[in-house]
Design goal:
CATH superfamily of the largest domain: Metal-dependent hydrolases
Number of helices: 19
Distance between the termini: 29 Å
CATH topology of the largest domain: TIM Barrel
Bound molecules: zinc ion
Strand content: 15-25%
Structural class: alpha/beta
Helix content: 25-40%
Mean pLDDT: 95
CATH architecture of the largest domain: Alpha-Beta Barrel
Length: 523
């Protein structure tokens, strides 16, 4: 990843930094009594992966929840059985939480409703999150505890689905509506987060990840507990992963009032960007599109913030000198965010802000050009091509629009730097699999989606290393194997530049090092 020295055969580490990269002679002069020499026998070493958008703390919390992903739960009957079994083992009145339900992948092909969950657990409040994290399902007990009924109006930016009689069906759309119920679920405390994060982080190490953004701390109203748990882990020397904390705007106001902002912290734990959402997700039909969804004529999804409100929010954080990261999937949402950033830049010109667009799935050529002009960095959710690509083509968008999701090829041709991400727990955190998807764009059904948007292997690696370091203002300290940079790297089984591109996801991680310290090796 260093263009001046693209390939070396030797490097050293001293304390937590690289030293003597490519200086075989220099390193040989250091006596074996002073250093440990390791012969990797021709294995490939790459800079550690930087996951620029996922939800580490949210994933950690799901480790306590029922796994409702389609890989585990094939149909609604199985899900009901699982909920019922959990209810038997759970004290009456205690919450049962689940994560990962996908109405379009499950054989019944429909949303859950109150009565599905009431049958399984009549005496427990139940809340199950959709895999997109933009929808949730509650049972009657949860609705009663939360005081959500026929008379409850839709909150701003959210929607309570209702049956023909006007009663809530159990389906809640977008965080504003989900939170009406979720705020009644007891929060995890700092100690619980600390032990769950300790269980979650090795999963990142196994995939060669040495740095990660935590993409929306405060999304579940427990920012203080999460941040404190991270701080405790760092102080105890147990963090083992560099974390860039992206924090929901509602919490960021408290930080800015103390004078804190982007990049405050240490090499291990940093305060990152302020996070906003401007739409939902395509597969939940809550992404804001310019044209109708293929499977629901007349429906285009809604932007979460009216344009004027978004303008105001972005201008406020832009003027405060912060980095802003906005979730936008649909082309109408992307348009709206770029409009607001453009406006803020006109009112208060600022250089090197590195504002980010998260997911950016339906960016058009025009959007790509505008992002470049505004120096906005998109982080593309390219795993969608594999996981939902067939359904984007057949159900939600149609062939033409589906071909252009995650326009990596267009971005590359236009000279727009970008990053890639997994959005864990939405899809598994596995940079090699994401790189594989960026390079091959093959769907689950084995079809290529948008061949023009495929990119070369090296470019996909840049998106997970140097470009990702850039988007947290850390390109001088990590992302490449260069003297003086943090010694974050992974040993892998094959050279990705010489194997067949369709074999990239089969490459194995043979070791992961953070600051020169080994944090993973296979057993
Ligand atoms: Zn996310």
């Amino acid at each position: 990843m260093n263009p001046e020295q693209p390939k070396v055969t030797t490097f050293g580490t001293f304390k937590n930094r690289f030293l003597g990269v490519g200086s075989d002679q220099f390193l040989k002069t250091i006596p074996g009594t002073m250093v440990e020499h390791i012969d990797l026998q021709g294995k490939t070493v790459i800079p550690g992966f930087i996951e620029s958008h996922n939800h580490l703390s949210m994933y950690a919390a799901t480790l306590l929840q029922l796994d409702c992903r389609a890989e585990t739960v094939r149909d609604i009957e199985t899900l009901k059985r699982e909920v019922k079994n959990t209810a038997i083992q759970t004290d009456s009145g205690q919450w049962i939480l689940g994560f990962g339900y996908d109405d379009t992948l499950i054989s019944d092909c429909r949303h859950l409703n109150c009565s599905d969950l009431d049958v399984a657990a009549p005496h427990h409040p139940v809340l199950i999150m959709h895999v997109s994290a933009h929808l949730a399902y509650a049972n009657s007990k949860a609705m009663v505890i939360s005081g959500v009924g026929s008379e409850t109006p839709d909150p701003e930016g959210g929607h309570i689905d209702r049956d023909q009689a006007g009663r809530p069906s159990g389906l809640l759309l977008e965080p504003a509506a989900i939170d009406l119920v979720k705020k009644h679920v007891p929060k995890l405390n700092t100690g619980q987060y600390r032990s769950l994060l300790k269980r979650a982080i090795p999963y990142y190490h196994r995939h060669g990840i040495t740095s990660s953004h935590d993409g929306a701390i405060g999304y579940t109203k427990d920012a203080p507990e999460i941040i404190e748990a991270y701080r405790h882990l760092e102080a105890a020397g147990e963090l083992g992963l560099r974390v860039y904390m992206t924090i929901m705007h509602s919490y960021y106001d408290q930080l800015t009032s103390l004078g804190l902002g982007s990049a405050f912290g240490s090499d291990l734990l940093k305060l990152g960007s302020v996070k906003l959402f401007q739409d939902g997700s395509i597969q939940a039909l809550t992404a804001a599109l310019s044209d109708d969804y293929l499977n629901r004529p007349g429906h285009r999804g809604e932007c979460i913030h009216p344009q004027e409100n978004l303008n105001h929010l972005i201008e406020k954080y832009h003027r405060l000198g912060l980095q802003i990261a906005v979730h936008a999937n649909g082309d109408r949402a992307i348009d709206s965010v770029l409009q607001a950033i453009d406006r803020a830049q006109h009112l208060a010109p600022r250089g090197d802000c590195r504002h980010m667009l998260i997911h950016t799935q339906m960016a058009t050529l025009d959007h790509v050009r505008r992002m470049k002009a505004l120096q906005v960095i998109p982080s593309y959710f390219v795993n969608h091509v594999f996981y939902w690509g067939d359904r984007h083509r057949d159900l939600f968008l149609g062939q033409e629009r589906a071909n252009t999701i995650d326009p990596l090829g267009t971005s590359l041709r236009e000279g727009l730097p970008f990053t890639l991400h997994s959005d864990l727990p939405v899809t598994p955190v596995d940079p090699l699999a994401s790189i594989h998807n960026a390079v091959n764009r093959v769907t689950r059904q084995g079809k290529i989606l948008g061949a023009d948007e495929r990119i070369p292997v090296l470019e996909a690696f840049k998106a997970y290393t140097v470009n990702a370091a850039f988007c947290s203002f850390e390109e001088n300290s990590k992302g490449s194997i260069v003297d003086g940079q943090l010694a974050d790297f992974a040993i892998i089984s094959d050279n990705p530049l010489s194997i067949s591109p369709d074999k990239i996801k089969e490459i194995e991680i043979l070791g992961t090092y953070v600051g020169g310290t080994k944090v993973y090796e296979p057993r």
